Amino acid sequence: MIDHFGINCADWERSKAFYDSVLGVLGYTRQLDYRVAIGYGRDGKPDFWIADMSAGEAAGPNREVHFAFRAADTDAVQAFYDAALAAGAESLHAPRLWPEYHPGYFGAFVRDPDGNNIEAVFHGAPPAG
């Protein structure tokens, strides 16, 4: 069900040190580091993300959380997006490939009624072209 999730951090340096330490003793390490967001996990798969609240989009009054739900295919991602909009969600990003994450990453992002960033993702989409 849950593919990955993330939180925003007010004290970026302190949060990086904290999560490096506490997740490290559990066997999790930095899998991806974008300077303003770090994904922790194992075996090349970041499951938990922290983001710097002072880095633009993450900043805001609600300290949103991000949850990504696994989808069976690209049609399921589209169905999630359509259902979310019909239920009153705000579109953040329409369904598309996100090659900057990894080849085959197909996702759609919406803002739920409480202001959280909710995504549906499928990891096996064919490349564009």
Strand content: 35-45%
State the shape. globular
- Computed structural class: alpha+beta
The overall pLDDT average reads 91
The number of helical segments is: 2
Domains, number = 2
What is the assigned CATH homologous superfamily of the largest domain? 2,3-Dihydroxybiphenyl 1,2-Dioxygenase, domain 1
End-to-end Cα distance, whole Å, is 30 Å
Organism: Mycolicibacterium flavescens (Mycobacterium flavescens)
Domain VOC: 1-123
Protein name: Glyoxalase
List the helices and strands and how they pair.
Blueprint (H helix, E strand, L loop, with lengths): L1 E8 L2 H13 L4 E5 L3 E6 L2 E8 L13 E5 L3 H13 L3 E8 L8 E6 L5 E6 L7
Parallel strand pairs: 1-4, 5-8
Antiparallel strand pairs: 1-5, 2-3, 3-4, 6-7, 7-8
Structure overview:
With 129 residues, the protein is of the alpha+beta class. The protein has two domains: 1-63, 2,3-Dihydroxybiphenyl 1,2-Dioxygenase, domain 1 (Roll); 65-129, 2,3-Dihydroxybiphenyl 1,2-Dioxygenase, domain 1 (Roll). The chain is built from two helices and eight strands, in the order E-H-E-E-E-E-H-E-E-E. An eight-stranded mixed β-sheet has the order 2-3-4-1-5-8-7-6, covered by helices on one side. A hairpin with a 3-residue loop joins strand 2 (29-33) and strand 3 (37-42). The protein is globular and about 40 Å long. The two termini are 30 Å apart. The relative contact order is 0.18. The mean pLDDT is 91. This is Glyoxalase. Residues 1-123 form the VOC domain. It holds the Pfam family Glyoxalase.
